[in-house]
Design goal:
The complex is a heterodimer of chains A (about 575) and B (about 300). Chain A contains 21 helices and 21 strands. With about 575 residues, chain A is an alpha/beta fold. A 7-stranded mixed beta sheet of chain A has the order 9-8-10-11-13-12-19, sandwiched between helices. A 6-stranded mixed beta sheet of chain A has the order 2-3-1-4-5-6. In chain A, a hairpin with an 8-residue loop joins strand 2 (about 35-40) and strand 3. With about 300 residues, chain B is of the alpha/beta class. Chain B is about 30% helix and about 15% strand. Chain B has an 8-stranded mixed beta sheet with strand order 2-1-3-4-6-5-8-7, sandwiched between helices. Chain B is globular and about 70 Å long. Classes of the chains: A alpha/beta (about 575), B alpha/beta (about 300). The interface between A and B is large, with 73 and 60 residues.
Chain lengths: ~575, ~300
C-alpha cells in the first residue's frame, strides 16, 4: 500500500488548519482516503503547530513520522522540521531570503531535497490582495503540486468561503489562478505522484472524532449537553453548541466541571438523555458525582477525553494514562461501565450504546477518548442510521403500570439482576427519594446492617449482569494468531495499518481490540494468549494499564510491551519497526 | 387560612405529603417550620406530590428528604442547585425546589449559588440558615458571628462574617425573600410566591439551631424579626430592598424583599428551544443525522 504524507507547519493563528482542511477535503473528493493529524501547543498565537495529511487510495488511519512534502508558512519550519522530510522530498516555503546554515545546506543536498520558494507576498501584491489570502496561495500551490484539478479546489473554496460573499470568492479564485501559473512556470516538474484515485472515498465523510461523537450523541436521542472547556474535550462542546439551533438541544456551559456533572445527572434523573465531557483534571472534579450516581442508581454518561497528566501536563497532546482513573475513580464500591472509542466510526456508533447501558443498568458510564481520536480527521463511510437502538431498560412510562407501582419498587433489593424499576419525577405514580445516603427500598435513609448489605449486593449484581452481556473484545486479523497484539483506543488505526504491511510477513498476526474496558471480559484474551507464541501489549501510557487490569482479572501478564508516553500517538513507521522486531 | 388536610376535591391534601418516617431533628429545630410551610405552600397551590421534585443538600435539611412526600433527591454537599437546575431544564413542567444550608451555600457550593442567581434558573432555592454546621456538630459557617466559639474554633472564629444579603443583592437576583422558621403562615406565603416566580427564587430562612447556635436563638430571632409586607414595602424597589435586607443592626426584615419578573428565566432565553412545545424529557428517541452529515462529505 502506497502512502503519501504532507505536512503544513507554522505559527498558531497563521491558518495552518484551514490549509490542511481544504487540502484534505479536496483530496477526499478526488478519490483518496486521508488521515489528518494536528499538533499544536497550549497557546493562542505563536506556538509552532502542524497539520499533517497522510494519503492513500486504500484505507489509511495513521500518521507517518516522515513526510513527502513539507509546507512551512514561516521560517521556524526551516529550522525545526527539516528532519521530517523524506530523502528526495519537497519543501515549500515563502521565506525568500532565508540563509541556510552550512550543516543544513549540506544535509539538504545530500538528501536530494527539492526546495521551492513560493513568493507569496509578491503574488499577493500583484493581485492587490490582503495578506489573509496568503494561505489560499499556499493551499493552491500545494494542490497543484499534487496534480490536483483546479475545478475541485474552486468548488471546495466556494463551499468554505461562499457565505462571505462573491467578491471574496473571486479573490480566492484569483489566488488559485496565480498559484497555478507559478506552478506551471517555475515548478511544473515538482509534482507528487499520487496513486490512482478510488471513487469509493468521494462520498465518505471527512470529520474529526469529536464531530463524529457529536453526531453519535444526537443520534442517540441525547437532548441536553452540559460542559466546561478543557482540551481535548472542548471540540465536542463546540460542535454540539454550534448545532443546537438545528438539533434543539439544551446546551449549557457550566461554571465548573462539578456543575456540569451535576446538571447532567439532574437532567438524566428527570428522564431525558444528557451528557457531559471533560479531560483528566475536570474528570477528577466530577468523580464525587459519579459515586453519587452509583448510589442513587442514576443513569449518567461522562466522556473522559485523555491528554497527558499529571496535573496540567501536556494540555494539547495525547495519552491513554487515565484508564485506571476511570476504572477506580470515586469513593465506595458501585457498578460502572468504562468503554473507549477508537476512531470516528466508534465515536458515532458507541454513543447510543453508552446511553443504552447507562439506562439499562441505571449506573454511570464513562466513555474514554483521547486527543488523537478527538482531533484527528478521519475518512469514514457515512454513518449507518439503521443499527442503533434506543434501549431504556426498566424505565416505566406506561400509565397503567405506573398506577400499580409502589415506592418500594424503586430500590427493591430483590429485583432480578439487581435492576429495579425506574420511573420519572413528574409521572403520576407513587413517589420515592433518590437517596444519596444508604437507603432502603423506597429511598428512605436506613443505616441498619442487613439493609446496607442487601443494597450493596443489589447494586453489585448489576455489575455481574453487565459483565455477562458486554461483548468480548474484537479480534482483527488471524483467527488463531501466533503473535497477538492487545490494545485499546486510538492505537487501533495505526495497529491495523501496520498489520496490513506486516501481514505479508506473517499470516499469523492478530489484534485484540478492547472497546469495553470495565467490567473487563477476559475469556477471549485468555484463550488466544494461551495459544499464541507471543503477546504484545501496546498502550500510550507508562505502566501498561490495560495489561495491569488483565493480569488482575485473569492472572495472565503480558511481558512484551510497546509503550509510549511522550504526548504523541504511535506513528506508522515507528510502530511498524517496533512490531517487526517482535515478528522476527 | 384554610388548610386542606384530606379533602375529596381532587386537589392534593396535607396527607398526600405525609411520610411514614419519623422526623429526626432536635426539639425546637427550625426545620420543622420549613417542613410544614413547604407542604402547606404546595398544597395551597394545588401541586400534587408527583408534580414536584424536592432536592436536598447534605445537612440537617437533607435529613428531611425522607420525611415528606413527593419525588425527592438527596445529593452531595454543596451541589444541590446544579442538580436541581439540570432536572428543571430537562423537564420545565416540574416544580423544582432545592434546599441547602448556610455551609453548602456560602462555602462548599458558593459558586453554584452565584451562577444559579446569575443564570436565573426557574427554580426555588431555600436556604436553611441556622448560621452553623449543625449535622457535623456545630462548626462555624461563613455566616456564624465573628468571635463565636464553635466546635473546631474554640477561641472564637477569626474570620469576618460574610455579609450574605449584600452579596446576594450584588448578583442582581430576581427574587429575594427572608423568612423565619418560627412563622409558618408567613413562610407559606413566601414559598408560594417563590414557587410561582418566573426565575430563580432565593428564600433565606432564619432558623433556630437549639443544640449548636447559642447566639441567634429562636427567642432572639422572635424579638428581632418584622414583616416588611405589613409595613407596605415596595417589592420592586431594588435599592430599598437591598438596604433593609442588609441592615439587621436593630431589627431583621422578613417577607418578600425583592421581586422582578421582567427578566426571562434561563430556559426562556434558550434560542434552541424557541417554539418547542415539548420538554427534553419527551424528546428521547433515535434521531436522524442525515442532514448534519452533509457538511462532512
Amino acid at each position: 500500500m502506497r502512502r503519501i504524507a504532507l505536512k503544513i507547519v507554522g505559527a498558531q493563528g497563521q491558518g495552518i488548519n484551514s490549509i490542511g482542511e481544504v487540502i484534505s477535503k479536496s483530496l477526499k473528493r478526488s478519490g483518496y482516503c486521508v488521515f489528518g493529524y494536528r499538533e499544536y501547543m497550549s497557546v493562542i498565537k505563536g506556538g509552532h503547530s502542524s497539520f499533517q495529511i497522510d494519503i492513500s487510495d486504500k484505507l489509511i488511519q495513521s500518521t507517518d513520522s516522515i513526510v513527502d512534502v513539507l509546507v512551512t508558512v514561516n521560517h521556524h519550519g526551516l529550522e525545526w522540521n527539516l528532519d521530517d522530510v523524506r530523502d528526495g522530498g519537497i519543501i515549500v516555503h515563502d521565506t525568500l531570503d532565508w540563509e541556510w546554515t552550512p550543516k543544513d545546506a549540506a544535509s539538504l543536498k545530500k538528501r536530494r531535497i527539492i526546495l521551492v520558494e513560493l513568493p507569496v507576498e509578491q503574488i499577493l501584491r500583484e493581485l492587490n490582495a490582503g495578506s489573509i489570502l496568503g494561505n489560499v496561495v499556499l493551499t493552491a500551490f500545494l494542490w497543484f503540486l499534487l496534480g490536483g484539478d483546479p475545478e475541485m479546489l474552486r468548488t471546495i473554496v466556494r463551499e468554505q468561503f461562499g457565505h462571505k460573499g462573491e467578491e471574496i470568492v473571486q479573490k480566492n479564485f484569483a489566488c488559485i489562478d496565480a498559484a497555478m501559473k507559478f506552478h506551471r512556470e517555475h515548478s511544473d516538474k515538482n509534482t507528487i505522484d499520487l496513486p490512482d484515485p478510488n471513487p469509493q472515498w468521494k462520498n465518505h465523510l471527512l470529520l474529526t472524532g469529536s464531530q463524529a461523537m457529536g453526531l453519535g450523541i444526537v443520534h442517540a436521542g441525547c437532548r441536553t449537553y452540559f460542559g466546561y472547556p478543557m482540551t481535548p474535550s472542548s471540540p465536542l462542546l463546540s460542535y454540539i453548541a454550534d448545532k443546537q439551533n438545528e438539533t434543539g438541544m439544551v446546551v449549557k456551559q457550566a461554571e465548573d466541571e462539578i456543575t456540569a456533572a451535576q446538571m447532567m445527572s439532574g437532567a438524566m434523573f428527570a428522564g431525558t438523555r444528557a451528557i457531559t465531557a471533560t479531560s483528566g483534571g475536570g474528570f477528577d472534579l466530577m468523580t464525587e458525582t459519579i459515586s453519587l450516581n452509583g448510589l442513587i442508581e442514576n443513569p449518567s454518561v461522562f466522556v473522559l477525553a485523555q491528554r497527558p497528566g499529571p496535573a496540567t501536563g501536556l494540555p494539547t497532546w495525547t495519552a491513554q494514562g487515565d484508564l485506571l482513573l476511570a476504572v477506580g475513580s470515586s469513593h465506595g464500591e458501585f457498578p460502572r461501565l468504562v468503554m473507549s472509542v477508537s476512531d470516528a466510526q466508534d465515536c458515532f456508533a458507541l454513543m447510543p450504546e453508552a446511553f443504552n447501558y447507562a439506562e439499562e443498568f441505571q449506573t454511570p458510564v464513562i466513555v474514554m477518548t483521547d486527543k488523537q481520536t478527538a482531533e484527528a480527521f478521519w475518512t469514514e463511510e457515512p454513518f449507518d442510521q439503521i443499527k442503533a437502538q434506543v434501549r431504556r431498560g426498566r424505565l416505566v412510562v406506561n400509565a397503567k403500570e405506573l398506577k400499580k407501582i409502589k415506592s418500594t419498587d424503586r430500590y427493591d433489593p430483590d429485583a432480578k439482576d439487581g435492576i429495579s424499576k425506574r420511573w420519572l419525577p413528574g409521572t403520576d405514580a407513587a413517589n420515592y427519594c433518590a437517596q444519596g445516603d444508604e437507603h432502603n427500598a423506597d429511598g428512605s435513609i436506613d443505616e441498619s446492617a442487613p439493609n446496607a448489605k442487601a443494597q450493596m449486593e443489589k447494586r453489585m449484581r448489576k455489575m455481574e449482569k453487565l459483565k455477562g452481556v458486554l461483548p468480548e473484545p474484537e479480534l482483527f486479523g488471524a483467527k488463531d494468531p501466533e503473535l497477538l497484539i492487545v490494545s485499546w483506543g486510538s492505537n487501533k488505526g495505526v495497529i491495523l495499518d501496520v498489520m496490513k504491511t506486516l501481514g505479508m510477513k506473517t499470516s499469523k498476526l492478530g489484534y485484540l481490540h478492547y472497546a469495553y474496558l470495565w467490567p473487563l471480559k477476559t475469556q477471549r484474551f485468555e484463550t488466544l494468549a494461551k495459544k499464541a507464541k507471543k503477546v504484545v501489549l501496546i498502550e500510550c501510557n507508562n505502566q501498561g494499564q490495560l495489561g495491569m487490569l488483565l493480569k488482575q482479572e485473569c492472572g495472565i501478564g503480558i511481558d512484551e510491551k510497546i509503550l509510549k508516553y511522550d504526548g504523541r500517538p504511535f506513528f506508522y513507521d515507528e510502530l511498524s519497526s517496533k512490531l517487526r522486531t517482535c515478528v522476527s | 387560612m384554610k388548610i386542606p388536610l384530606d379533602l375529596q376535591t381532587g386537589g392534593p391534601s396535607m396527607k398526600d405529603y405525609l411520610s411514614p418516617n419519623k422526623c429526626t431533628w432536635c426539639d425546637g429545630c427550625g426545620d420543622y417550620g420549613v417542613w410544614t410551610a413547604t407542604k402547606r405552600a404546595l398544597v395551597e397551590l394545588g401541586i400534587h406530590p408527583w408534580q414536584v421534585l424536592l432536592c436536598f443538600d447534605v445537612g440537617c435539611n437533607g435529613n428531611g428528604s425522607d420525611k415528606i412526600g413527593g419525588y425527592r433527591f438527596h445529593g452531595l454537599h454543596g451541589r444541590v442547585i446544579s442538580f436541581a437546575a439540570g432536572a428543571k431544564l430537562a423537564n420545565p413542567r416540574l416544580t423544582v425546589i432545592a434546599s441547602g444550608g448556610d455551609g453548602a451555600s456560602f462555602s462548599e457550593g458558593i459558586g453554584h449559588f452565584v451562577h444559579g442567581i446569575r443564570s436565573n434558573y426557574p427554580i426555588v432555592f431555600v436556604l436553611h440558615n441556622n448560621a452553623n454546621y449543625g449535622l457535623t456538630t456545630g462548626q462555624a459557617s461563613a455566616v456564624t458571628w465573628q468571635g463565636q466559639a464553635m466546635n473546631g474554633s474554640p477561641n472564637g472564629i477569626p474570620e469576618r462574617t460574610l455579609q450574605s444579603m449584600d452579596f446576594v443583592f450584588s448578583l442582581e437576583p430576581t427574587f429575594v425573600a427572608r423568612g423565619f422558621g418560627g412563622d409558618i403562615p408567613q413562610l407559606t406565603n413566601i414559598l408560594k410566591a417563590a414557587i410561582q416566580h418566573r426565575g430563580f427564587a432565593f428564600v433565606d430562612i432564619l432558623q433556630a439551631c437549639p443544640t449548636f447556635n447559642h447566639f441567634a436563638t429562636h427567642e432572639w430571632l422572635l424579638e428581632h424579626v418584622y414583616d416588611v409586607q405589613e409595613e407596605g414595602h415596595d417589592m420592586s424597589d431594588f435599592i430599598k430592598a437591598r438596604m433593609i435586607a442588609v441592615d439587621t443592626s436593630k431589627r431583621i426584615s422578613t417577607g418578600i424583599l425583592y421581586q422582578n419578573e421582567d427578566v426571562p428565566d434561563f430556559y426562556e432565553r434558550l434560542v434552541s428551544r424557541q417554539g418547542s412545545t415539548v420538554t427534553p424529557v419527551e424528546e428521547v428517541q433515535k434521531t436522524d443525522v442525515e442532514n448534519l452529515m452533509q457538511e462532512f462529505v
